[in-house]
Each structure stands twice: as C-alpha cells, then as structure tokens.
Amino acid sequence: MTIENSRLRLIWSGDPEIRVEMAQAGMIGRRKALLGLSAVALLSRAGAGFAAGPTVVVTKDANCDCCNGWVDHLRQAGFIVEVRGDGSDIHEVKARYGIPAELAACHTAEVSGYVIEGHVPASALHRFLKEKPEAVGLAVRGMPVGSPGMEVPDTPPDEYDVILSGHTRRTYARFRGSAELSR
Hints:
This protein is an alpha+beta fold.
C-alpha cells in the first residue's frame, strides 16, 4: 500500500516496517507532517491486524449455538477463524484426524497442522501455538458448562482439563470456565 502526495510517500508492504520517502528535498509543513505520522500510525495498526496469526479452520454444525460461541471466543481473542461446511461431514473429519471417541466433542478445528477438538480456551490455544510441542493437538472432552461457548447464566462453571494429545496424552492445563487454574 502506498500513500503519497507531492512531498511525502509512505510505503507499506505488509510487514511491520513502513518506509517513508521524501519525494522532494526540503522541509514539509506541520500539517503534512501530522498527516504523514497519522498515516504511519494507521498502517501500523493495520499491520498488527494482518499479523494476527494462522487461520483456525473449524468444522461444526451450522446451527450449533455453543460452536458459534466458541468461534466468537476465538475471534475475540484475535484468531482468524474460517468455518467450513454445514457439519454434515463432522464424523468424517474426526475420523480423518484420528480423534478418539473419548475425546470427541461437538466441533473440530485445524490450525498450523494441529487438531483442536472441543471447547479449548483461546488462552490455551495461544500458548500451545507459541510452544509448538510435538503433539497431535489439544482437546476438551464433552461440553463443560462455562467453557468458551458453553456459558450458562447464573450457573457456576465446571472445572475441566485441556488434554494434550499425541503419542501419549496428558493434562496440558486445567480450567474453570475461561480461567486457567493450573498447567
């Protein structure tokens, strides 16, 4: 993206750096300098949005409110989320990813080569993607009350485990609602 006038050219190529070039030598006025700085700030914010990270591809039932709630939770946490299909192929997706019945939940997602099953909190997913462990992915069994997308007014949230799955399984983190209790 390039923004320019007769004296100032701002060039942004999508990375965090913005190049400012003077089209002509000499001083520029205060108004043009402020305009240029405003454009730099605007492009910096735009760059932060493009650097949101990998896309989370979700397969879910189109009419499932808790799945929609989980997708909204991820988006609010800064993830780019793409919902595919109408959920009619959810069992085929689970079979393709090798999700065992005891870890199955109502939606399945893929991000950066990992499989995410169920109502995994965004904070656990952010940390997991930063750590990049050798694993198949993360899972939350069933539909714990209070987990992201499963909030119920006037009902205390359940405690639940986020499971790291792979060659072995272990508890990756323990949560109550969206609050992490332990790792």
